[in-house]
Specification:
This protein is α/β, with parallel strands linked by helices. The chain has eleven helices and nine strands. The chain folds into two domains: 172 residues, Rossmann fold (3-Layer(aba) Sandwich); 97 residues, 2-Layer Sandwich (Pantoate--beta-alanine Ligase, Chain: A,domain 2), CATH 3.30.1300. Helix 8 links the parallel strand 5 and strand 6. The protein binds pantoate. Pantoate binds next to strand 2 and helix 7.
Length: 283
Amino acid sequence: MLIARTVAELRQHLSAYKKPAFVPTMGNLHEGHLSLMRMAKAQGDISVASIFVNRLQFLPGEDFASYPRTFDSDCDKLRSVGCDLLFAPDETELYPQPQSFKVLPDPALADILEGQFRPGFFTGVCTVVLKLFHCVFAHSGGVAVFGQKDFQQLLILRRMMSQLAMPIDIVPGATTRAPDGLALSSRNGYLSAEERAEAVQLSMALKSLAASARAEAGSGRFDVAAAEAAAMAGLRERGWLPDYITLRHPSDLSPVTVVGPEPLVVLGAARLGKTRLIDNLEI
Ligand code: PAF
């Protein structure tokens, strides 16, 4: 695996390829990232990962400084799945000047759910992803693989590709889960043993809301707001601080009022101790 530390090195390596397949990450890699990498290997003529902890997507007071940086073990993991090229710029390389030009995503998608609780988060994500895409896809179009665990991020990035006419296919990778059902996330490492045992309750709350919505689909009896409130109250009773648990239309994340046969997604975010977890389930 080649490691490019600068944009110039990266572009030089990539100039010989027609279809890079790219997985952007913030490092601290786990099996979820590796499954995206395996997908990328099957999609392009060179597989590329990036590791960059992007200051722009952290709010003041969030975990930017303490976010786990595990470069050497990340490189071992990437090598184990056959990653061809790693782009690992430092901050002065990617943001040589303060990044004052930013991407302002559609507020209808980016100021709700995660964006409501983390204002500016998706501006930070879109800005760095656009910049990474300009670095990686300078000579070509290509493919980029993103995990479905970050459902809203995936939707917003797809919209960005289409509205900015970028020749890059965004391919979704299924959420990788621990045997008990907890979605894998770099932030799971913040959980104590006791919290780790409890953490699966978020996905269980989503599953149970999805199951009751599915059972009542088309009956006209399903009270969405009451079911969402009950799911949040259930978590609160167990000591969680939920930000949201909500049933949405997957195409635009608009709220669901009546449950019918169409596809839906249940999304949730909640804090357990100091750790904020997110998850979602498509119905
Ligand atoms: O999903 C992530 O890890 C980050 O938001 C991303 C896409 C790598 C941008 O920093």
